[in-house]
TrEMBL record:
Residues 71-253 form the DUF3388 domain. It comes from the Bacteria. The lineage of its organism: Bacteria, Bacillati, Bacillota, Bacilli, Bacillales. InterPro entries: ACT-like_dom_sf (IPR045865), DUF3388 (IPR024514), UCP021288_ACT (IPR016784). This is DUF3388 domain-containing protein. Pfam families: DUF3388.
Length: 264
């Protein structure tokens, strides 16, 4: 049975023909190279495939005797490995919270690719997205849904105008859909039918995306531990995500009569 592997190696002595020698050795062991790319300064990553896991073990043993390279990783590929080879670098991960991933607005292409790979998976996945207004949260989720060939359904949103859904119909209840909700809009909703719909969707084996998850879990039966992934989007690395500003903007919008919300 064909299995995939990820190898990352550090170049200790860079000389002409090194990559060719490594490729030839893998070929002799009947290990196929799917993709290769630089993933960090002085490091290369490879996605490999082989019908014989022992061939991978033999390569690892031989590579350990080579002075030109130092194999840092050799494992079945994780999502971050696949994306690192595809885009030439690793996506940023929080050092303390391993399920939190950080992006800046210039990296939306990588973010869309990252979420699309998650959306292609089967079963329940709960994803939270943090970010200030107009940083690309909703647009990225919609683009990732398209890339993953999934239909997206807004349960609550402010993308065009404030929307609060209280019921779904027909194929909108499909497990193959991506369900999107705005945590601020849902949390301030007084419509019990909307909250019941949210609970029903949360129990489905499907993809759910919650913008502003920290506000969504306030005074609710959900906690941040329920989330499988947390994604943070900033305009730049130094931008602070503050919910005080978001809530103040929401209060000002309500007082100015600019809330064009409607229930469905």
């Amino acid at each position: 049975m064909l299995s995939e592997w990820y190898m990352e190696y550090e170049i200790e002595v860079n000389r002409p023909g090194l990559l060719g020698e490594i490729s030839s050795l893998l070929g002799l062991l009947r290990v196929n190279i799917i993709t290769i790319n630089g993933v960090d300064e002085g490091r290369r990553g490879m996605l490999l495939s082989s019908e014989d896991d022992e061939a991978i073990e033999r390569f690892e043993l031989i590579a350990s005797t080579m002075e030109m390279i130092n194999v840092r990783k050799l494992r079945h590929p994780k999502l971050r490995d696949i994306l690192a080879v595809r885009h030439g670098r690793y996506i940023q991960r929080d050092a303390d919270d391993k399920k939190t991933f950080r992006f800046v607005r210039d990296e939306l292409g990588i973010l869309v690719d990252f979420m699309a790979e998650i959306f292609k998976q089967e079963g329940h996945k709960l994803i939270g997205i943090r970010g200030m207004p107009r940083v690309g949260k909703t647009e990225s989720v919609v683009a990732a849904s398209v890339s993953a060939n999934r239909k997206w359904i807004f349960l609550s949103s402010t993308m065009i105008r404030q929307t609060v859904r209280s019921k779904l119909a027909g194929d909108e209840f499909s497990d193959n859909n991506v369900f999107i909700l705005d945590g601020i809009v849902t949390r301030k909703s007084t419509d019990e039918r909307h909250m019941q719909l949210v609970r029903e969707i949360m129990r489905m084996p499907s993809i759910k995306v919650v913008e502003h998850p920290d506000i969504f879990v306030r005074h609710s039966e959900y906690t941040m531990d329920d989330f499988d992934y947390i994604i943070e989007i900033r305009r730049d690395d130094d931008e602070e995500i503050t919910y005080e500003k978001l809530e103040e903007n929401d209060r000002m919008s309500g007082r100015s009569g600019m809330d064009f919300g409607f229930n469905i």
